[in-house]
Amino acid sequence: MGGLAGHWRLVAMVEHDPAGTPRDGPLGARPRGSLYYGEDGYMSVHLMRDPAEGAGYIGYAGTWAPSPDGGRVTHTVAVSSDPSWAGGDQHRDVDLDGDRLVLTRHDTIDGTPFRATLTWLRS
Fold first, then answer.
1. Cα–Cα distance, 7 to 69 (Å, whole number)
2. What is the pLDDT of residues 76-111, one digit of tens each?
3. What DSSP character marks residue 28?
4. Model-level pTM?
5. At residue 1, does pLDDT exceed 60?
6. CA of 113: how far to CAs of 15, 60, 66, in Å?
7. Fewest Cβ atoms nearer than 10 Å: which of 45, 49, 85, 87?
8. Which residues make Cβ contacts (< 8 Å) with residue 86, sequence separation at least 6?
9. What is the set of domains in the chain, with CATH numbers?
10. Over the Cα atoms of the chain, what is R_g?
11. pLDDT by residue (tens digit) across 41-60?
Protein backbone atom coordinates (compact mmCIF):
# COMPACT_ATOMS: atom_id res chain seq x y z
CA MET A 1 0.00 0.00 0.00
CA GLY A 2 2.96 2.17 -0.58
CA GLY A 3 4.04 5.31 1.21
CA LEU A 4 0.73 6.03 2.94
CA ALA A 5 0.93 3.23 5.52
CA GLY A 6 1.90 4.37 9.01
CA HIS A 7 0.95 6.90 11.67
CA TRP A 8 0.22 10.53 10.81
CA ARG A 9 -0.31 13.61 13.02
CA LEU A 10 -2.74 16.35 11.99
CA VAL A 11 -1.17 19.78 11.54
CA ALA A 12 -3.97 21.69 9.77
CA MET A 13 -7.66 21.36 8.88
CA VAL A 14 -9.17 23.95 6.54
CA GLU A 15 -12.53 24.07 4.77
CA HIS A 16 -13.23 26.13 1.65
CA ASP A 17 -16.68 27.43 0.78
CA PRO A 18 -18.04 27.34 -2.80
CA ALA A 19 -16.18 30.59 -3.61
CA GLY A 20 -12.92 29.05 -2.38
CA THR A 21 -12.72 31.16 0.78
CA PRO A 22 -10.85 29.28 3.53
CA ARG A 23 -12.29 28.95 7.03
CA ASP A 24 -11.60 26.86 10.11
CA GLY A 25 -13.05 23.38 9.97
CA PRO A 26 -15.66 22.04 12.41
CA LEU A 27 -12.98 21.52 15.07
CA GLY A 28 -11.72 25.09 15.23
CA ALA A 29 -8.41 26.74 14.44
CA ARG A 30 -6.12 24.23 16.18
CA PRO A 31 -7.56 20.72 15.93
CA ARG A 32 -5.60 17.72 17.08
CA GLY A 33 -5.65 14.41 15.28
CA SER A 34 -4.12 11.12 14.34
CA LEU A 35 -4.48 8.93 11.28
CA TYR A 36 -3.35 5.34 11.04
CA TYR A 37 -3.09 3.42 7.78
CA GLY A 38 -2.09 -0.20 8.39
CA GLU A 39 -0.22 -2.27 5.82
CA ASP A 40 -3.11 -4.74 6.17
CA GLY A 41 -5.67 -2.16 4.95
CA TYR A 42 -7.02 -1.26 8.41
CA MET A 43 -7.39 2.46 9.14
CA SER A 44 -8.54 4.78 11.91
CA VAL A 45 -8.98 8.54 12.16
CA HIS A 46 -9.34 10.52 15.39
CA LEU A 47 -9.81 14.29 15.34
CA MET A 48 -10.62 16.60 18.22
CA ARG A 49 -10.94 20.29 18.95
CA ASP A 50 -8.14 21.91 20.95
CA PRO A 51 -9.40 21.51 24.56
CA ALA A 52 -8.86 25.27 25.07
CA GLU A 53 -11.52 25.87 22.37
CA GLY A 54 -14.19 23.57 23.83
CA ALA A 55 -15.49 20.10 23.08
CA GLY A 56 -15.62 18.42 19.69
CA TYR A 57 -14.61 15.03 18.28
CA ILE A 58 -14.73 13.08 15.02
CA GLY A 59 -13.58 9.49 14.89
CA TYR A 60 -14.01 6.55 12.57
CA ALA A 61 -12.37 3.28 11.61
CA GLY A 62 -12.56 0.72 8.85
CA THR A 63 -10.43 -0.05 5.84
CA TRP A 64 -8.52 2.04 3.31
CA ALA A 65 -7.35 1.51 -0.25
CA PRO A 66 -5.37 3.77 -2.57
CA SER A 67 -6.38 4.20 -6.19
CA PRO A 68 -4.11 2.44 -8.72
CA ASP A 69 -2.45 5.75 -9.64
CA GLY A 70 -2.05 6.80 -5.98
CA GLY A 71 -3.98 10.05 -6.50
CA ARG A 72 -6.93 9.08 -4.29
CA VAL A 73 -7.62 7.01 -1.24
CA THR A 74 -10.94 5.46 -0.23
CA HIS A 75 -11.91 5.09 3.42
CA THR A 76 -14.58 2.41 3.87
CA VAL A 77 -16.09 3.29 7.23
CA ALA A 78 -17.13 0.44 9.52
CA VAL A 79 -17.71 2.40 12.77
CA SER A 80 -17.97 6.14 13.34
CA SER A 81 -18.79 8.76 15.94
CA ASP A 82 -21.15 10.09 13.24
CA PRO A 83 -23.52 7.16 12.56
CA SER A 84 -24.34 8.46 9.07
CA TRP A 85 -20.74 7.76 7.96
CA ALA A 86 -20.78 4.05 8.93
CA GLY A 87 -21.20 1.67 6.02
CA GLY A 88 -20.08 4.15 3.38
CA ASP A 89 -17.05 5.06 1.34
CA GLN A 90 -15.28 8.39 1.69
CA HIS A 91 -12.95 9.47 -1.09
CA ARG A 92 -9.95 11.74 -0.57
CA ASP A 93 -7.54 13.25 -3.08
CA VAL A 94 -3.95 12.47 -2.06
CA ASP A 95 -0.90 14.73 -2.22
CA LEU A 96 2.07 12.95 -0.64
CA ASP A 97 5.38 14.78 -0.43
CA GLY A 98 7.88 12.90 1.74
CA ASP A 99 6.56 13.00 5.31
CA ARG A 100 3.78 15.50 4.44
CA LEU A 101 0.38 14.15 3.42
CA VAL A 102 -2.52 16.33 2.27
CA LEU A 103 -5.94 14.69 2.00
CA THR A 104 -8.70 16.68 0.31
CA ARG A 105 -12.38 15.82 0.53
CA HIS A 106 -14.87 17.29 -1.94
CA ASP A 107 -18.45 17.02 -0.72
CA THR A 108 -21.85 18.66 -0.49
CA ILE A 109 -23.62 19.40 2.78
CA ASP A 110 -27.24 20.53 2.67
CA GLY A 111 -26.83 21.21 -1.05
CA THR A 112 -23.76 23.43 -0.61
CA PRO A 113 -20.45 22.21 -2.07
CA PHE A 114 -17.33 22.50 0.04
CA ARG A 115 -13.76 21.25 0.14
CA ALA A 116 -11.97 20.14 3.30
CA THR A 117 -8.19 19.85 3.33
CA LEU A 118 -6.35 18.04 6.11
CA THR A 119 -2.56 18.23 6.30
CA TRP A 120 -0.72 15.48 8.16
CA LEU A 121 2.91 14.82 9.10
CA ARG A 122 4.32 11.33 9.52
CA SER A 123 4.81 10.62 13.20
1. 22
2. 999 999 888 889 899 999 999 999 999 999 987 778
3. B
4. 0.89
5. no
6. 11, 22, 24
7. 87
8. 60, 77, 78, 79, 80
9. 2-122 (2.40.128.490)
10. 14
11. 999 999 999 888 888 899 99
